[in-house]
Amino acid sequence: MPRPTGRVLTLLELLQSGGTRTVAELADRLGVDGRTVRRYVEHLIDLDVPVESIRGRYGGYRLGPGYRLPPLMLAEDEALAVLLGLAAGRRAGLPAAGSTAGETASAKIRRVLPKHVAGRLAALLDSLAFTDLSRPAAAPAPVPDAEVLLTLADAVRHRRPVSLRYTDRSGHRSERTLHAYGIVAHEGRWYVTGANPGTGANPGTGANPGTGADPGAGEERTFRLDRITDARPLPGSFEAPTDHDPARQLLAGFAAAEYRHEVVLRVRATVAQVRAHLPATVAGVAELGPTADEGEQWLRVELRAERLDWLPPVLAALDRPFVIERPSELRALVTAFANRFASRALRT
């Protein structure tokens, strides 16, 4: 049976959820009678918690405005939400989150959390990365399961393999084994990056290599967290590459995704000029060095696309010398675009 102090704290938590709570409702939730509820309310008032009594048929108790915030009791997923919000706010440059107030608020929450909860949240914050393109999604993105998120963060910190139950975009379900290197937030979605251990089976489980094992030994892999229904740590450990950048792996994976057309360009420009029109999620950029006759920097730009009709306007907006290495269809589209552009400019 809960002790009286525990019931008082539970009462505070119920009031913190907002609204007016009737005496009957509180008595039912606490497992006590109405007179005991009133005594618990008096305990909170003695602790300077601003509890207001509302009279009338629909009356009861609610928290009133006070000079200081009442003690907070956060569940594990609630603490996770607050700390991630502060971390994302600092990354986005929000004044309050990036100020001393944001740092002290985060420190206060961590200090009062139970040791095992604080450790799991610290593991997540240590393993979390943001892409430079991180911004809220145009539509609300599916929210990953908090337990999955914390389990993967623990696997990243302690370099433990994990078994994932994953549903891909076509709806196919499978069980994967992953060496998780990091967790990345990108445009409102969450991803885990890492590598396939290439065992052909989940280590330590004796699983048959032919039953849903993930092919491609040693390949880098990226999974959307909202498509993971379960994550389970496995025996053993692994060594992660010292120079691995989870955010860079994620963006490179987007740029190299399988599409109908493979486009290769040479562009005389700076990386910043190209990136202004072709971000890292769309194209890969590599320096080629200056040419012998012109002495200016050229870049190789590679990307994949399902359609090509959007590229001529992008190249026109880039307004830098370029050479189309492939595909030949793009040359025809650029020529047609240039002719249309020129004919319209000559109209009077």
Annotation keywords:
single chain, 348 residues, alpha+beta, 6-stranded mixed beta sheet, 4-stranded antiparallel beta sheet, 12 helices, 39% helix
Write the layout of secondary structure elements.
Blueprint: H1 4-16, H2 23-30, H3 34-46, E1 51-54, E2 60-63, H4 76-92, H5 95-98, H6 100-112, H7 115-127, E3 128-130, H8 146-158, E4 162-167, E5 173-186, E6 189-195, E7 220-224, E8 228-233, H9 246-255, E9 261-267, H10 271-275, E10 283-290, E11 297-305, H11 311-318, E12 322-326, H12 328-345
Parallel strand pairs: 3-5
Antiparallel strand pairs: 1-2, 4-5, 4-8, 5-6, 6-7, 9-11, 9-12, 10-11
Largest sheet: 6 strands, mixed
Q: How far is it from the N-terminal to the C-terminal residue, by CA?
A: 89 Å
Integer-rounded radius of gyration: 28 Å
The outline comes out as elongated
Assembly category: single chain
pLDDT < 50 runs, ≥5 residues:
200-215
Strand content: 15-25%
Name the structural class.
alpha+beta
Helical residues, percent: 25-40%
Q: What is the helix tally? A: 12
User: Mean of residue pLDDT?
Assistant: 79
Helix and strand run: HHHEEHHHHEHEEEEEHEHEEHEH
Count every beta strand, where a strand is a DSSP E run of 2 or more residues: 12
